[in-house]
Amino acid sequence: MKYAFCVTALLIIAGCDGGQSAFTGLGPVSSRIVLLTWIMFIGAALITLLICALMLIAIAGPAGWRHNLTREKTIVWGGIVFPVVTLTALLVYGFLVLKAGGELVRAENPVRISVVGEQWWWRVIYRHDDGRTTESANELRIPTGRPVEVELSTADVVHSFWIPAYAGKVDMIPGRINTLHFVADKPGVVSGQCAEYCGGAHALMSFYTMAMTPSDYDAWLAKEQANAIPTFEKEGERVFLSSGCGGCHTIRGTRASGKIGPDLTHVGSRQSLGAGILPNTKEGFVKWISRHKTIKPENLMPPFDIFSESELQSLSVYLNSLE
Ligand code: HEC
Ligand SMILES: [Cu+2]
């Protein structure tokens, strides 16, 4: 039993690495959080060792030492003054670290992106300098080296937006807009996750963040802003447009202009489907359209058991081609 616990604990700790780890520290904001974490961890470990030593003395130490431990002075200094001073210092330091992290990357002209938490996916809106916007979903693309300002809001309940590799988590609260600031130092893909229980499919509400060199980012953004390329997969497009998908999904450049679900204009170029749940391949689309209710239970897209195998195939090829 004891061993099972240790093995499980080790396995869990081993999972704390890579793309979705707060210890990755990929930018100035998260590096400070990592430092704060280590200071707290090492401090807490030292205090635990001290307490264990005192406990041993209290149980089996020499009579003189034990007597010293029970003196009123020891209790007042060790039991009241010491915790109050240490915890206050840690609290003040924590606030300073977090504030400094935010200040560090606050800039006159950041990259502006709005993210809206929806049960159970992310609406992502890129705000261009000329005031126009481009909508996407379930993925954040950012240029390296430039401060990013993410405006966080929610369409329904409380969600929490967390990219552990870049910054601390910030809640998305009904009726409010919170902002998150961070910078990515180098290109790479990391994942994030909703960090506040928001009902049914909460655990399946993740997303990818891709940091790109500024020139790659500009090229990508121009492509993302454009309408969907005219498709050769006419049959798939026909199935999409005639099955009611367009009531909830937008594909810019077609008459599908629904706003309830994720924008699918360039869905084929995203990292994943269903908010980080399925690979973005033709098979991924087949699975999502035919079995999304079992893959992501309770998600708000209605089931579609109406397609023949060939309709399902062409629909999937069509969506996958929307790059
Ligand atoms: C009643 C609204 C509604 C209709 C109709 C609808 N969807 Fe959806 N769709 C959604 C919602 C909501 C989501 C997000 C589900 C989630 O991840 O929690 C979604 C997600 C998706 C995704 C994943 C998108 C992404 O960014 O990962 C695809 C692909 C998709 N729908 C395709 C379709 C197709 C094809 C049809 C028509 C056969 C369709 N949808 C009809 C609401 C709808
Ligand atoms: Cu959630």
UniProtKB/TrEMBL annotation:
Q: Which SUPFAM superfamilies match?
A: Cupredoxins, Cytochrome c
User: Where, subcellularly, is it found?
Assistant: Membrane
Q: Which UniProt keywords apply?
A: Copper, Electron transport, Heme, Iron, Membrane, Metal-binding, Transmembrane, Transmembrane helix, Transport
Catalytic activity line of the entry: 4 Fe(II)-[cytochrome c] + O2 + 8 H(+)(in) = 4 Fe(III)-[cytochrome c] + 2 H2O + 4 H(+)(out)
User: What coarse category fits the chief subcellular location reported for this protein?
Assistant: membrane
UniProt superkingdom: Bacteria
Span-the-membrane segments of this chain are 34-63, 75-96
Keyword Membrane on this protein?
yes
Which residues belong to any copy of the Cytochrome oxidase subunit II copper A binding domain?
A: 108-223
Q: Where is the Cytochrome c domain?
A: 231-323
Q: Where is the signal peptide?
A: none
Family (UniProt): Belongs to the cytochrome c oxidase subunit 2 family.
From the Swiss-Prot or TrEMBL record, give the protein name. Answer: C-type cytochrome
